[in-house]
């Protein structure tokens, strides 16, 4: 009996225990839920993990690394590594 990989799920960021592994210092995780239309970002600076959610006006909120890993692993979440500039633009820090 063979086990086939599920080819219906595509993500730019591979699912792994550390969702920030492989990100450069100038990158953040950009996440979205196509069902709700919500968008949010995760940033990790050493041991501090921050979440910037659209519904909160992209105000930084301390978040546990396990929450990030569990959220990114959800089928309904799309996650991509992007430049910090994206977050700065959405947060109104850059035009």
Task: Walk me through what this model shows.
With 95 residues, this protein is of the alpha+beta class. It has a domain of 64 residues. 16% of the residues lie in helices and 29% in strands. It has two helices and five strands; from the N terminus they run ββββαβα. It has a five-stranded antiparallel beta sheet. A hairpin with a 6-residue loop joins β3 and β4. The N terminus is likely disordered.
Short description:
This protein is α+β, with helices and mostly antiparallel strands and about 100 residues long. The protein is built from two helices and five strands.
Give short descriptive properties of this protein.
globular, 16% helix, single chain, 5 strands, 95 residues, alpha+beta
């Amino acid at each position: 009996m063979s086990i086939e990989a599920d080819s219906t799920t595509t993500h730019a960021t591979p699912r792994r225990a550390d969702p920030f592994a492989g990100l450069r210092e100038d990158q953040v995780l950009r996440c979205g839920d196509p069902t709700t239309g919500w968008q949010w970002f995760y940033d990790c600076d050493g041991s501090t993990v921050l979440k910037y959610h659209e519904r909160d006006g992209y105000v930084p909120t301390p978040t546990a690394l396990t929450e990030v890993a569990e959220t990114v692993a959800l089928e309904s979440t799309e996650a991509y590594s992007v430049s910090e500039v994206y977050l700065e633009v959405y947060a109104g820090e850059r035009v």
